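User: Can you predict the 3D structure for this chain?
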Amino acid sequence: MEARSELDLLVVSRVPVSIQAQLAQVLEATASDIVARVEVIGDPEGISKARGDPGRFRQILRNLISNADRYGGHRIQVRLGITNQTVRIQVADNGAGLPEDEWESIFEPYHRAHPSGSQPAALGIGLSVARNLARLMDGSLAYRRQDHWSVFQLDLPVAAGPQTEHTPAKTATLTGH
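Assistant: Here is the predicted structure, written as structure tokens:
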């Protein structure tokens, strides 16, 4: 199954996704000055495959790393792990973070947690789209502040095996919940 977009509909496939391969592709396509600040914690080779859409997974990861670069601190970490049949990917930065009352509102379309003058090209839809994509892949995306780090946590189901390849794709509107 392949991801595609037609008009305002989005089709997301759910197949085994190599976290290692997708992370490598994202980092290869990211500017070298940003990549130099990214520390990968956890063994990408030791992480099970997630069930999701490879292209949409990369889209979420690019968005989170880009946001950490634009709005976060000078250190960026991509933390990899697995827990309870869930592949967990965290993109964290050591920036100032957000007050707790904004932790959910940053996922609303067109919400901007930072003054519009700081990034005039940003529309404020990236996190909303990223969360919707995670949900379409039977996962979740959340924000929290932990130990002086801003942490975006993406959880996706572990790919159970070959039968996962036949899981039907999901279709939704791009801004739907």
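The chain has four helices and ten strands. The chain has a mean pLDDT of 82.
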